[in-house]
Design brief:
Blueprint lengths: L4 E13 L2 E7 L11 E7 L5 E7 L8 E7 L7 H7 L5 E8 L13 E6 L3 H14 L5 E7 L8 H6 L4 E7 L16 H9 L6 E7 H13 L7 E6 L1
Parallel strand pairs: 7-8, 7-10, 8-9, 10-11
Antiparallel strand pairs: 1-2, 1-6, 2-5, 3-4, 3-6
Protein name: Ferredoxin reductase
Cofactor: FAD
InterPro entries: Cbr1-like_FAD-bd_dom (IPR008333), FAD-bd_FR_type (IPR017927), Flavoprot_Pyr_Nucl_cyt_Rdtase (IPR001709), FNR_nucleotide-bd (IPR039261), MRET (IPR050415), OxRdtase_FAD/NAD-bd (IPR001433), Riboflavin_synthase-like_b-brl (IPR017938)
């Protein structure tokens, strides 16, 4: 049965970076979702023209409320409008939840490694929050690659950490003063400590731009990780 479109209303917009926002929508009748899933968002212009894009859910299910992470793309048709111009109270259409492979479930008890590139941290944040909410599951590690400190999503929440949550942030363009790692792309050495703490049954989730995901997956398999335990989600 096709997944229906639902009307949703923007109730809150929160800055993450200069070009990224958290959008909180209310979608009456929302059936719920799993951490890691995404939705399609459809906008309809006054002349009837429609545009649809997919966005990750950033938080576990909470009644009719949906939290999306949206990064404005230069020259984009939808994301700049959602990030900067969609008025509070405005209506959009959403369809979902979508995706059943790249998900974390509360009954999972194995250690988890999350590897994020840029806005790829959004669905991984949903997993972190879902695990915290469930108060269950094995330890989580997050290796998060961003261009610089101004590009970090969820800065305060990730710095606060939490029980059984280890966070390491890597910078590709500009490392902050005092950083022990020079700016640069993800390497095997960056993943080695986290991989060493995984058990053979541990699960890895990788999300980000296509090139980043392919590089991370190659590094993980080269380190001996079972490809069947590596789940990937890519964009761009």
């Amino acid at each position: 049965m096709p997944i229906p479109w639902r009307s949703a209303r923007l109730v809150k917009r929160e800055d993450q970076t200069a070009s990224a926002r958290t959008l909180v929508l209310e979608a009456p009748g929302w059936p719920g979702h799993l951490a890691g899933q995404h939705v399609d968002v459809r906008l309809t212009a006054d002349d009837g023209y429609q545009a649809t894009r997919s966005y990750s859910l950033a938080a576990p299910a909470d009644g009719d409320r949906l939290e999306l992470g949206v990064q404005s793309t230069a020259g984009g048709e939808v994301s700049p409008y959602l990030v900067h111009d969609l008025p509070i109270g405005a209506a959009v259409e959403v369809r979902g939840p979508l995706g059943n492979w790249f998900v974390w479930r509360a009954e999972q008890s194995e250690p988890v490694l999350l590897v994020a590139g840029g806005s790829g941290v959004v669905p991984l944040m949903a997993m972190i929050r879902a695990r915290r909410q469930a108060a269950s599951g094995g330890p989580f590690q997050l290796v998060y690659s961003a261009r610089g400190e101004p590009d970090l999503w969820y800065r305060d929440e990730l710095r606060a950490g939490g029980p059984d949550l280890d966070v390491r942030v890597l910078y590709t363009r500009q490392a902050p003063p005092g950083s022990t790692r020079a700016a640069g792309r993800l390497t095997a050495a960056d993943l080695e400590p986290a991989v060493g703490r995984l058990t053979p049954a541990g699960t890895v989730y990788v999300c980000g731009p296509t090139a980043f995901v392919e590089t991370a997956a190659d590094l993980l398999t080269s380190s001996g990780q079972d490809p069947a335990r590596i789940r990937t989600e890519r964009f761009g």
